[in-house]
Amino acid sequence: MSFSHAVGAMRAGVERRAFCRYPVKLSAAQISWQKGSSSSTVNCVVLDVSLKGCRIEAAGISPPPLGSHVCIKFAAGGQGLEGQFVAVQKPWFGAAKLGIRFDEQLSYDLFNEIVYGGGHFVETTGDNTPEHERDLFWK
């Protein structure tokens, strides 16, 4: 989508994203990319995530060119995902904000762990179980 089409879509109130963004609870991550013959790896903070991408903040880096391939490794799941840089916002002062589009859809398990935090599905049994989960008519 060209810039003029994106501006036109914003003015018309059309959502250009296919997936909603969600704020994250587990925000630690690490990104790696190649630039020529050298590779760079930096720690970053995930600001928000969707099933097909995320927005990160990384301090002290010179942003790579748009379209560069990247590997992002979330501390939550420990697995790396391949993607590419699709947006770079570098203010005069402060950390750079980078948009990453994943090559493959984020797994639901990893998505839940990043967005809701580790151990968000707590098994309740006995007296700690809410009545609506004990009552057979609710299930």
Quick summary:
With 139 residues, this protein is α+β, with helices and mostly antiparallel strands. The chain has helices spanning 3-12, 108-116, 131-134, and strands spanning 22-23, 28-35, 38-49, 53-58, 69-74, 80-89, 96-102.
Task: Provide keyphrases for this structure.
single chain; 139 residues; alpha+beta; Thrombin, subunit H; 6-stranded antiparallel barrel; 7 strands; 37% strand
What does this structure look like?
Mean pLDDT is 79; it is low at 1-10. A six-stranded antiparallel beta barrel has the order 2-3-4-7-6-5. The chain has three helices and seven strands; from the N terminus they run αβββββββαα. The chain has helices at 3-12, 108-116, 131-134; strands at residues 22-23, 28-35, 38-49, 53-58, 69-74, 80-89, 96-102. It is elongated, with a radius of gyration of 19 Å. It has 139 residues and is an alpha+beta fold.
Quaternary status of these chains? single chain
Number of domains: 1
Tell me the fraction of residues in β-strands, as a range: 35-45%
Coarse morphology: elongated
Number of strands: 7
* CATH topology-level name: Thrombin, subunit H
Q: At CATH's second level, what is the architecture? A: Beta Barrel
CATH superfamily, called what? predicted glycosyltransferase like domains
Radius of gyration: 19 Å
Helix content: 10-25%
For the terminal residues, how far apart are their CA atoms? 46 Å
Instruction: Indicate the low-confidence ranges by residue numbers.
Output: 1-10
Lateral arrangement of strands in the main beta sheet: 2-3-4-7-6-5
Task: Work out the helix count.
Answer: 3
Classification by helices and strands:
alpha+beta
Largest sheet: 6 strands, antiparallel, barrel
